[in-house]
Write a structure and sequence with these properties.
alpha+beta, NADH Oxidase, 6-stranded antiparallel sheet, binds flavin mononucleotide
Length: 204
């Protein structure tokens, strides 16, 4: 008997959830631009006319911004890119980080930061969120908590998209905040919350 569309969708989601794993070892193959676009769109694209996105956001504030360190992506020159959620385009904003710079921010020698074909930086306009939710909790902790939660929701969607593409990824949050801030040079008032390494899984 043919499965209903709902059963089929549910089966597909189940498969992706089972397949999602943190993968830390990558080979040299470049990512296709299509895969990259789908992974970023899963994390943070605008999916309705009123501006709402794939990931939920308290007060629909959307304080997250995605940036991408591109090393090996077909059709994109290596560099530092900003992701535009409305057009779903990557805008080249700078040079790629020099070799070893990302690794030097790691608290645990996470070499996959250097080996990944691309690293998505989940950044947040933290002070904007802290200000927005100060009425709920004046010390700012609530806004900060909401941002962390939203970054997790965004990252999980990218993990599932990576599983759908047959690629490998791992989220890295063990980094020195000051060093990473300095290395990335994100726009003013934007801080990095998480690094999401993506590549073709290495046969081991
Ligand atoms: C908040 C958070 C921070 C993490 N930080 C790191 C990290 O700094 N380096 C790393 O290699 N993995 C990191 N991970 C990945 C976890 O180690 C991984 O999710 C865990 O081992 C479970 O494996 P799985 O993702 O394959 O299910 C982090 C995961 C989370 C949720």
């Amino acid at each position: 008997m043919r499965k209903s569309a709902v059963d089929q969708a549910s089966d597909n989601l189940k498969m992706l959830l089972r397949r999602r794993r943190s993968i830390r070892f990558y080979d040299e193959l470049p990512l296709s631009l299509c895969s990259v676009e789908r992974i970023l769109a899963a994390g943070q694209s605008i999916t309705s006319d009123d501006g709402k996105r794939t990931a939920p956001s308290a007060h629909a504030l959307y304080p997250l911004d995605l940036f991408v360190i591109v090393r090996r992506v077909q059709g994109l020159e290596p560099g530092f890119y900003a992701y535009a959620p409305a057009s779903q385009q990557l805008l080249l904003t700078g040079k790629p980080l020099a070799d070893g710079v990302l690794l030097s921010t790691s608290l645990a020698n996470d070499e996959w930061l250097e080996d990944a074909a691309m690293v998505v930086v989940v950044g947040a306009r933290l002070n904007e969120a802290i200000g927005q939710f100060a009425e709920q909790q004046p010390d700012g902790m609530r806004g900060a908590r909401y941002v962390q939660f939203e970054a997790g929701a965004c990252t999980q969607k990218m993990y599932l998209a990576v599983a759908a593409e047959g690629l490998g990824a791992v989220v890295v949050m063990g980094f020195d905040d000051d060093r990473l801030n300095e290395a990335l040079g994100l726009p003013r008032h934007t801080v990095p919350i998480a690094l999401f390494c993506v590549g073709h899984p290495k046969e081991r």
